[in-house]
Every structure is written in C-alpha cells, then in structure tokens.
Design goal:
The complex is a heterodimer of chains A (93) and B (222).
Chain A: H1 14-17, H2 21-25, H3 31-43, H4 45-62, H5 64-67, H6 74-87
Helix pairs in contact in A: 3-4
Chain B: H1 7-15, H2 19-38, H3 44-61, H4 71-89, H5 96-99, H6 152-164, H7 168-179, H8 184-191, H9 195-218
Helix pairs in contact in B: 2-3, 3-4, 4-8, 6-9, 7-9
Classes of the chains: A mainly alpha (93), B mainly alpha (222).
C-alpha cells in the first residue's frame, strides 16, 4: 500500500497532491511548494504513478496534433488566396 | 524567402501582397484554427465556416494589425470574435463573458466549467477523516502498462472521445495547450483568463482524459 508503507508528509495528503500536478508541471509553484511535492513523490509510489500518468496523458494528447491534420482543402486554399489577391494586390504589379 | 516565423517580416510580406506568404500562413494555422473553432461551435461544418470567415477577417484587417499581440494571437482573437458572433446569430446561448470565468479553486466551483468537478480521483480512493493518514491513498492507482504496448490508433480514439465530452472551456484550453502546444501565457492572453483559472481548466481536462484512458491501461496486455 503505497503512501502509507513509509511515512508520507502529513502536511500534503495524496488527495491534495493529485490536484496540483498541473501546477507542478507548469512551474507554477513556489520553491517551498515544489519541495513539499518532491518530498512526497520521493516516498509515495501512488502519487509518483499519478505524475507518470499525467505525463503520458499530455504526450498522447499531443499526438493529435499530427493525427488530426484536416487543413484547408486545395479549393478552399485557392479561394482564400484569391480573396487575398483582391485585397492586397502584389506590390509594384 | 525571408524567415516568415518572424511576425514583422511576415506582416510586411503580406501587406506587400506576397501570396506565398499568405499561403504559408494558411498552411501554418488552418488546422489549429479548425480545431479551436470546433471547441466553440456545435459542428465541424459550422467550425469550418467560422475559420473561413476568420481568414477573410485576417485579409481585411491586415492593414490594421498593430503588433501589440503576436500575429498568431491576433488571428485567434478574430476566430473567437467570429465564433461569438456566430453563436449569437444561431441563438446558441454560450455565455461568452462567463465562459472562461472561474475562481481557481482546486475542487468544485469554477464557473464555465460544466458539471461539478469531483476531483482527479474519486473520493473513495482516499482515506477518510478518521484514518491516521486522512486524505492519503486507500486504493492507490494501478500502474499503467508501458505506453509502447498500446495501439496508437486506439489510444488516440480514446483521447478524442474524452475530449469530446469535456465542458467547452476545458476543451478549448486543453486543445490549445496540449494539442497545439501553446504556452500558458499565450492561452491566458487569448482567452483573457487568469493563469490560475487556466490551470484549473487544464487540470480538470487532463484528469478526464486520464480517467478515460485508465481502464484500457491497467489491463494486462497479452
């Protein structure tokens, strides 16, 4: 049973730690808060696992960037470029 | 061609009527605009129209761009304004003024955030107030199988599903941050929300994606 087999820091329960994982990863914490989280993570396998899962979630979500391309079709591109040409004729042309 | 990733160079090229620069701009942002638009409007078809109108707005507004924000943020501001107008026209009551408002509480409370947030993990996973270690794990999370073991397509499908079910404000923030790779500062500037509120929305969105992935990740893969 991780989190209790050793002595977790009493001032930061796991229930609270799991709600600050994004703050932690965003660097949005004071040095003191970071130290508390680091201390907790070092001795709590459960919360260390949560941090690892958060990183996995961020990584797999990021893969949608390549997967869901769906950019403008050539026809849409052409009509946009035509609209651009009409509004901004080539300089000196 | 000059370095178009530099706003000043790019804007100068666009104002001079450089079609290649404009085509590059469309290439660069169109997919991201479509994805973001979809977080505001009810269908991909409407999202595509909003993006089309956004590009026309960019073309019309180029001469007025003052460089007070980055070109990217300016384009996405046009997108949001277009989506807002569109929402009003279709009598879709997105309360845009309060859409992203919130107080940054870790649990519950933030406005514009859909149903009440119950925490990244159910309350039952933690020890009760009478336990010697209140708030610590009663049932710690089961370690996930290594990522390499999972089929990419199936994983991405699960992530898509989870994102579809997010409240709109969470979906927008997650999409910009974790899919398009925007920084926290950029997202806050675009959506005019506080850094704390932005992180609350992002955290809840990630928690929902995590929960949706969990069942498949804890099974032992043969």
């Amino acid at each position: 049973m991780s989190g209790v087999a050793e002595t977790p820091p009493p001032d930061l329960p796991c229930r609270e730690l799991v709600e600050v994982v994004t703050d932690y990863l965003d660097g949005a914490m004071t040095a003191e808060q970071v130290a508390r989280v680091d201390h907790h993570l070092a001795i709590c396998a459960g919360c260390a696992e949560v941090l690892a899962q958060w990183r996995t979630v961020i990584a797999v979500t990021g893969e949608l960037r390549e997967a869901d391309v769906g950019a403008a079709t050539p026809a849409v591109q052409r009509s946009l470029v035509a609209a651009f040409r009409a509004a901004h004729p080539p300089a000196g042309g | 061609m000059d370095d178009l990733s530099d706003d000043q160079t790019l804007v100068a090229a666009l104002r001079a009527g450089d079609e290649q620069a404009f085509a590059w701009l469309v290439q660069r942002f169109d997919a991201s605009l479509r994805r973001t638009a979809r977080t505001f409007v009810p269908s991909q078809a409407v999202a595509d129209e909003v993006v089309q109108e956004t590009w026309l707005g960019v073309i019309r507004g180029l001469d007025r761009f003052e460089g007070r924000s980055s070109l990217k943020t300016w384009i996405f501001q046009i997108l949001i304004n277009t989506a807002r107008t569109r929402g009003v026209r279709e009598h879709r009551s997105i309360p845009f003024s309060s859409f992203f408002a919130g107080d940054g509480d870790a649990r519950g409370g933030a406005a514009g955030d859909g149903p009440r947030y119950e925490g990244a993990f159910p309350e039952s996973r933690f020890r009760g107030p009478d336990d010697p270690w209140p708030g610590h794990w009663a049932t710690p999370p089961t370690p996930w199988q290594p990522d390499e073991q999972f089929d990419r397509k199936a994983t991405l499908e699960l992530v898509r599903e989870a994102i579809q079910h997010l409240p709109p404000a969470q979906r927008t923030v997650l999409s910009l941050r974790d899919i398009d790779g925007w920084t926290s500062v950029e997202v806050c500037a675009l959506l005019e929300i506080s850094a704390a509120n932005q992180r609350v929305l992002l955290h809840r969105a990630r928690a929902a994606v995590r929960a949706h992935l969990e069942p498949s990740r804890t099974e032992v893969v043969a």
